[in-house]
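Worked Example 4.2. Consider the chain below.
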Amino acid sequence: MPDTLPSLSTDQVAAFVELARAGSLRAAAEAIHLTEQGVRNRLIALETRLKVELYHKHRGPRRRSPLTRHGDLFLPHALAFLERARRLTDLFTGAEGPSEVRVAATQYLTLYVMLDAIRAFHQAFPTIRVRLSTRMERDIEDALVRDPDLSFGVAAPYEAGADLEYRHLFSLDWGFIAPPGHVLLRKRKLSLADLVEVPLIVFEQGSTGRQHVLDAFRGLGLSPRIDMEATTTGIVVKMVEAGLGVSVVPLIPNGAVTRGVKIGVRSLAGQIRPIHSGILLRRGETLGQAAEAFIRFLKPQPKTKTDERPG
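Applying the procedure from the previous section yields the following structure tokens:
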């Protein structure tokens, strides 16, 4: 039986993973303190064992990745292989797993979910640090595929591609926000039809949030008045607080979006398609204990009565 197993070394697999992360043989060699030929020798030995070509050997048109189709397919398994090797070496040493978790998240989730979650996690696990980077949704996918040190991504909305898996966390319903005392905040049953004649502050063109809002209006045969545009929810909220207009924004269940801001809020749940938020993982990769522990802190708690601010 042992004779049928391929002779793969962690050094070979680590060289391949570093090539995927760094993007070139030269950068990979510098990262793992080898010569380019040393890295090349490990990769050739790995390809010989697997009987496939894992990376492009010849220079040509500039590519996003040095990996071939087989290399892209092998990458998540290589990452899982190295993680399992780390666990085996720690089996009898009393180690409790990695002391660092690297995460990438969108700006919205960074501001309204990640900061509170990281603060609470560090209090519960003071020896494990979370390193957070804020990126656009499309960049999170690319970072996960290319950077093996990145544990997972947090994004909303998202349709995972072939290389990634999506793990749902929560859905974001929408709410109407306006300066305190606005007449629509006192309306008993607020609907999108009530907002048609009100100048709105909306998200910029091309954004998913804007599309959700416009689709809801159009589905009712309505055309909203768009007065201003902004790039992020945080900016929209500050514009409303400054009295520049009213808006419709996605709301975190714990009230974080409007906490500490002098505005009134009315729910529009069920009238606009929710935005789904969750974890992006490399397909086939098993997360370490530290990463799994941190994920448990990411689901926002429901809003309490003291958070409610009807305006």
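The domain at 2-90 is CATH 1.10.10.10 (Arc Repressor Mutant, subunit A). The chain has three domains: 2-90, 100-169+276-307, 171-275. Compare this with Example 4.1 before moving on.
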